[in-house]
Amino acid sequence: MAEKLKIISLGGLNEIGKNVTVYEYGGDMIVVDVGMGFPDDDMYGIDVVIPDFSYLIKNRDRIRGIFLTHGHEDHIGSLPYLLRDVQAPIYATRMTAGLVKLKLEEHRLLDKTKLITCEAGETVKAGKFTVEFIHVNHSIADAVSFAIKTPVGVCVHTGDFKIDPTPVSGGMIDLARFGQLGKEGVLALLSDSTNVERPGFTKSEKSVGESFEGLFRGCEERIIVTTFASNVDRMQQIISVAAKYGRKVAVTGRSMENAIKVSTELGYMQIPAGVLVDVNHLKSLPKNKICIITTGSQGETMSALSRMAFSTHKQVDIQAGDRVIISASAIPGNENSVGAVVNELYRKGADVVNERERALHVSGHACQDELKIIHALIKPKFFIPVHGEQRHLKTHAKLAREMGMEPNNIIISDIGKVIELTPTSAKLNGSVPAGRVFVDGYGVGDVGAVVLRDRKHLAEDGMIVVVASMSGEDGSLISGPDIITRGFVYVKESEGLMEELRLVAVAAIQECRDQRVKDWSAIKSQIKNDLSNFLYKKTKRNPMILPVIMEV
Amino acid sequence: MAEKLKIISLGGLNEIGKNVTVYEYGGDMIVVDVGMGFPDDDMYGIDVVIPDFSYLIKNRDRIRGIFLTHGHEDHIGSLPYLLRDVQAPIYATRMTAGLVKLKLEEHRLLDKTKLITCEAGETVKAGKFTVEFIHVNHSIADAVSFAIKTPVGVCVHTGDFKIDPTPVSGGMIDLARFGQLGKEGVLALLSDSTNVERPGFTKSEKSVGESFEGLFRGCEERIIVTTFASNVDRMQQIISVAAKYGRKVAVTGRSMENAIKVSTELGYMQIPAGVLVDVNHLKSLPKNKICIITTGSQGETMSALSRMAFSTHKQVDIQAGDRVIISASAIPGNENSVGAVVNELYRKGADVVNERERALHVSGHACQDELKIIHALIKPKFFIPVHGEQRHLKTHAKLAREMGMEPNNIIISDIGKVIELTPTSAKLNGSVPAGRVFVDGYGVGDVGAVVLRDRKHLAEDGMIVVVASMSGEDGSLISGPDIITRGFVYVKESEGLMEELRLVAVAAIQECRDQRVKDWSAIKSQIKNDLSNFLYKKTKRNPMILPVIMEV
Predict the structure, then answer these.
(1) Which of B319, B382, B409, B504 has the most CB atoms at less than 10 Å from its CB?
(2) CB-based contact (8 Å) between A210 and chain B?
(3) In chain A, which segments carry CATH 3.10.20.580?
(4) What's the pTM value of the predicted model, to 2 decimals?
(5) The complex's ipTM?
């Protein structure tokens, strides 16, 4: 029996983010993207979510290469965690490699990692796979799709993309190459589903530049622009229009400064000489000669824009009249934090312009009509929607059916599920370990469901600690019970309630003594139950109750 | 010196929700709306936010009446809390009074409250004020604006409104009356600012009916529709189109059942005989004869739609093919919970239709062009934007300036600030107590900033309790220290860390003994600091540390 091609996503299905896909044939594996995810609202205290890498770690000797489509965190962010246990050459375009390099330096992993720079059009052999880099448009420079040649056929893995006929740099997505691959025959298409719910086309990046023109022309005030740090083309457009209108540009916020450094070093940005100035030197310039580019488009508390608004930025304070341009849309879940910054900007008298009023942001992902073009060009035998929640995957499947694809040839998978492909068949067969691993501070994986459940409980109702010292000899109460609470009620104004709680605990201990209960854990249960019932009746609340008995 | 008119908002400025406005002249006061607010994301465990009513309580003998514009929670939700301390007649239209009645019954306040029903066009005298009810369009039936005649002039208080020339019931907003008032002369306009950032006009409620038509016509599957329970006209449209296509309608979810009960009793809904069926009787009907109207348009965990999706609803389980229509937009902050339900609906094979694809929801608030019409009709001397965050108030002020209003005649106030008006002047002068009071379970106001800060700390990092018994005589350690954690790390997998923590605590106690520290609070500080430093270095986390010393 001939070998089958296996495709396994370790992330990016039924979720947005942490994209990782494994292609496996015989003894060889390649990995496409190693992304990280962001915590949901109820994952209290979690900094970052990474994939469960145990399948890759177990098979580390079989990994022939790691291929990266582009430099966004949801495609490269988990690399430092994977590289702790797995060593394999990393292949990426120049911009992506530049960003990976920064990241690996930070984690002191650069020396032991083989990082190979490729260009669109190049082909890399990795075991039984041959991977071709194909230029695409996206909201970061130098993004690529992969055409992965395998013994059973060619797979096209789009990564994130859009079709932009007038991009700021790099030229339009290589539709010709996709068409050629389609004519030669493509076994499977794995395509981005992020914007599949939106009809029509995503607007060109150039349209944003036209909006900037209108806002810079004739403006006599300072202009402050915030956008995503990774969107180099956007920053290029801001700098170009600023230069055109005689403004100097200062950049503030660490990720923004890093992005400009990397992209100018690598030649992805052209900044006219003398335009960039240090943010400390703005004071000497007249208002209509100043443009500040800043982080904070998502309302992040510690970002430069937020600090300017709340007057905690060292160099820049918002002044009445400042024109603040928000060249980004709020990622779902961030609306309220963006709103808080915008309100504060208005309170300081700024003139805030956002994308509701003008085209100040365009997405980096293909909408329905663009996706249809890709389907029509590639004409794959099998279609596997990726990069999306269930709603996106199902809607993308519907789009593919509308394009004439056989329903049976569309595979909606899930993380960890194994898709087996032959030249004539595709089916789900079995699974490998996959899931979400939480990173909290330095800890990777030491916080899980139980800890998060406790955090949620503590968050909503606070806690009550009941401490008593009891005799190890005869079980008599020696000291306490003392009641300590945090996050429950104002203690000073609730002294009566605290005393009532103490009396309930005393009664519970007494009852245990009367019934000759000597097992500490039974006594603790009694205290917990009695207090819990008492409190719910009295306050309709359910704090975490922690009885502690010290045997003395 | 002549008396001045005072206008004081106790809520609804620099926030969305909890609208309360006080009009005061001489010894008389009236209150317009008594709304509640919803907690922000970081107000852990808070159920409801109400205004600080201390100013009204202090002046309870001067309150001549409470006037309600409409029955939404952000305009009536705090009534039960105010009526605990304040007794005054409540004036409202029939629909609003019906909803207030339900609420007061629940809080056992109905008997001692004087609730008077008025109709649009009527006028009520309350002390030195005369209040006229003016019909407006909004997303709930029977909404009104007030023209408040005072000794210094007429104030128009819009409440929430839109201009709908083709509403489902009740006729268009009474623009003629606004125009007449404008001609007679209006001193001040207090106008809704909710949608002031949106250009153009809000679509008519009727446009949603047309979308329903398209989705019901020819559909052979069950149809499940979710919307806001208070939107009676929306429900009327759903029921009408269902009846037209021969479907029976079942209603599920408590707030939806209540709303239908009140509005049919009061004659705000006309349901053809035999159309409504009990949700238990659906099983006997063919799929294309079923329409279910359900709560859950915001993805609320316990709502009927959420329970259907996650298979915990007693009578209805989502089946493959079900057409689920979400006739609502997600309120900012709810996108992720709505998304979770939608994903689960897709997973069960439902065909989900939302407002991105079709006009399935329209707002109840006026957009820019409607606001301009109101300004142009009323031509007030002074303008006070209300119902909005700073961004909305400022944008509404800009709109008023563009309509030709003097910048000095526009007052942007804040909660608690006193606006003083004479026939020729308006200015801010002084303030009264105002703020946010948190309701958690039965507790009103016993949770404040410190408790919330602790909850946030507990939520993000969990906690560590260190307990030790020490001799009251010589300060020697008798038992412990024991380490108990919750919401910090998996204890079973972190036994080594727990032992390290214990040793740090032992060392801290020992050091205190060596240095002859005998004060328990100093020893506790030492334990807390040492553990905190140790943990931050080792884990980059900062759990709440609670040292407890029992003196025995």
Answers:
(1) B382
(2) no
(3) 449-551
(4) 0.89
(5) 0.86
